Amino acid sequence: MQPRLAPRSRTGAPTPRAAEPIAVTSVVWARTRHTDLIIALSLGLVAFAASTASAGAQSNEKAEIAIAIDERGQRAAGIATTAVDVDTLGQDLSFPGAVVVPPHQASVVASPAAGMVEEVLVTSDEPVKAGQLIARLRSPQVVEAQHLYLAALTDERLAADKLRRADALFKVKAMSEVQLVLAQGEYTHALARVDERLQIVQLMGVSPADIEVLRTTRKINNSIDIRAPKDGTVIERTVKQGTRVDAAAPLFTIATLSPLWVNIQVPTSRMALLQEGKVVALPAQGARGRVIRVGRTIDPATQSIGVIAEIDTNAGSVRPGLATSVSVRIDGTTTNQWAVPVAAVVRHRGSSWVFVQDAKGFRAKPIEVVSEAGQRASIKASLIANDRIATQGVMALVAELAENDER
Prior knowledge:
It is built from six helices and 23 strands.
């Protein structure tokens, strides 16, 4: 059979053949495959970045860290362990506190008018009774207020007489109704003026008995008697005899001294331990009380919160201004609270840790220290009763923990 020759053009040159279909299909398949590879690589990079970020986030969290060390290494490092104990005894925590007077138990006695303090009849730390005379003030404003009150009384009497005459004349048709209405309005206005001036005199501290004497005798007094508003103790006196004062200037502070408050400064690491109703004690003074308020803000300078406890005075052993130590009993029956030796707790990366023994060595476990007393520490951690923790040779494990951070 003769081989098939390629067709030739009229000039004798071979005529070019059309592209083979199988070659076109191969090119399309290659390009599609290339695109799929690019997409797959992109998705792989995204997944790798996500897993890296997740791993980084997990590494930033406080998690257990495995430390591989065999028994020979443990003996060489002098590592000894002990079993953890459930903390059922509780702890007494001490915090600094200051005794203050509750605000609602203190009353400020202010000057009712501008003037000069003529007499001061009490001093600081002196007990007083409600209504007791504690000072006397001489004031020209009081004189003016009494004068205006007497003038208002006079105007009220004149307006009343005018209204009676107008009413009588209206009844006999000798006065118009308009004139009667005007007389009624003047009398109403006079009554309102009397009430206004009376209240001003009362606000200046003039007693009802003195007002009645003023009304009947029409004799003006140039001084005001300042009296205690309630039973209590004078805890502050800000004036002395002969002092000139303005209206509303504070003169005395009188307070009831039982019960009292203690402002307790609690570090932020311990603020979860104190709640409303918690019993507190002042061991040095033999007083007891309960927490009534827990602060909602943190002092940026001391990184502590303010807790207020209401306490009894124990027959006067607790007094305002006392700086004392406040004892709070923390029960040890909460979940995951354990008693361990203080030597087993280490600080690393700003956290507290213990080293829990396992088959491969130890696991560094982050914990929360509740309290420390003597050689024992109360901690919160995810432990079980059979766990053993390192108590000696701990520095060798700390070194391994630090080396693990550098990897």
